[in-house]
Amino acid sequence: MNQPMSLQDFRALVEKHAQIGIVPSMIPGVVVSRMDATGSPDESSTGTILAIVAQGTKRLSVGSAVHDYGPGQFLIASVDLPVSGQFTDATPEKPALGFGLELRPEIIAELMLNSAASEFLRPVRGESSPPAIAVGDASERLLDAAARMLRLMDTPRDIPVLAPMIEREILWLMMSGEHGATVRQLGLADSSLSRVRHVVRWIREHFAESLRVDELAELARMSPSAFHRSFQAVTSMSPIQYQKSIRLHEARLQLIANPGDIATTAYAVGYESPSQFSREYRREFGAPPSRDLAMLRA
Could you tell me which residue ranges the HTH araC/xylS-type domain spans (predicted)? Predict the structure, then answer.
């Protein structure tokens, strides 16, 4: 009889296959991470992912919400959001270790067609929008499935056949668990979360344009009040705050890649005033553009 997967065994597997940084593995959609230092908060995007911490503690800030998760816990992100994140206790002697799996809506949608998922369909559509990010405790079954996925890296020829099966097992465990609504709505084309995701993608592609909430609500096929409520529930931000965060993150990337005229960058990402851009940049990243870039280069 198989012994239940312990966190210690899972940690050893992650450490065996991890490289420095957050690195895609040979298994499609799977990343294994190792961080040897805490460092300063890293500005990035979540993507749609399940992340399980094997060792260390990570803090993720999304708008006004802060999420802390540590060994044996997972984080689900069902919408691509701009975030600030850092491991809070990582050293070379005791590095932070993690496992990540991309959440693919098409696979979740396929699983939702299974007759066993019919019980999920009724309550989800009537519920309010689930948050885009949720934290919970990883069960022994989830750790066991993630560990079997990692072991496939020892037998690469098995990956094309067995990895898709284990991926579906992991997704099913998440869909039927405590935070299943956040995962399930990824597979529902007409769910409120999917409608918000559609608007989020539009904002990311048109971040430099001026926007009106009523036009975004129309894009989401929702009333303005329902849209604003759902967007806030999913992203922990208003649509205007989300656009502002995307603009500032894009500006930072542009300035890192091509340090030049700050005013030109401000106009390029949609700001009408360089002074307003500098104020909001400092509020977002803790320092004005010139000082922030100098610290990053250092």
Answer: 197-295
